Amino acid sequence: MDRTERFYKIDQLLHAHGVVPASRFQEVLGVSNATFRRDLEYMRERLYAPIAYDRQRRGYSFVDADPHAPRYQLPGLWFNSAEIHALLTFHALLENLQADWLAPHVRPLQQRIRALLEKHDHTYEEIARRVRVLPQAARTRQAEHFSVIAHAMLKRKRLDITHYHRLRNQDSRREISPQRLVYYRDNWYLDAWDHGKRALRTFGVDAIRDARMLDTGARTVADSTLDAELGAGYGIFAGRKTRTARLRFTPERARWVASERWHPSQKGCYEGPHYILEIPYSDPRELLMDILKYGPDVEVLKPKTLRQQAQAMLRQALEQYETRP
Which residue among 30, 153, 258, 280 is least enclosed by CB atoms within 10 Å? Predict the structure, then answer.
């Protein structure tokens, strides 16, 4: 009987009999008194079980819980995929923090996460060795001005930034009002109002080469406007005006794509053995990259402009191989 099963047995005995002596627990659980006491201590401290010893009746029982205490709840069999991903990712983020002054504040969080991960008979080391969370295309360049950006955003101040445009390979000065930070595909982005362009823009934080907080108050854009403007289309490069991409996937690739979520407003259906996926988009850059990674397993049906852009990129890729031996 593992530790989780013992927790359930302890809970069942207390609910069934009201008061249970330690000897009865040891008999049913098949453990020593020391092991039983460790289990009981764990249930009290980690699972917040309101269990106390009744000296008059010489046994353990449930007592009225503190109304301000966390709710007592037995663990499930283990974590679901979202829970284990969140815990391991959060622990990894805390491990990667470099600021020494944060260490005293971060350490209790790390200990709490480890305690959650070890709430069954598994050690953290064993879980970390057996379960891996791999970052996807994370850019390794440090976001040097992140703290300035975050501080200005929360203080509602404008920023004077130097932004590096990778496509044009050039820097530009911008005065912006930071709205929100977004962690997307293992990289940080800043949604902001660009006062020069008089429009909302999204900046890769690692591409901000300089940032200076100004005394001028930031312009605040409503969350509903941010969502409508930047969340309507596909990917991080979004916009309010959208078009609908219609993609057809081969029967083989359909087995994967049919269960994938590319966008909250996507539509999908089977047409014969092929899978048709419709996605709203405004800026085609990221969508084209995701389409082309499927190679011959996908075809852009509509709109014509997106189909032509995909064709042009495929031709350029083919030319790279045809011009070299």
Answer: 30
DSSP letter for 100, please.
G
Q: Distance between CA atoms of 248 and 270, rounded to whole angstroms?
A: 9
Is the pTM above the cut of 0.85? Answer: no
- Read off the pLDDT of residues 224-252 as tens digits, 9 standing for 90 and up: 999 888 877 888 876 778 899 999 999 99
| Number of continuous H segments (helices) and E segments (strands) in the chain | 11, 11
Closest CA to 174 of 152, 203, 154, 147: 203
Q: How far apart are CA 122 and CA 161, in angstroms?
A: 47
CA atoms in the 13 A half-sphere facing the CB of 74: 14
DSSP letter for each residue of 3-54 = HHHHHHHHHHHHHHHSSB-HHHHHHHHT--HHHHHHHHHHHHHTS---EEEE
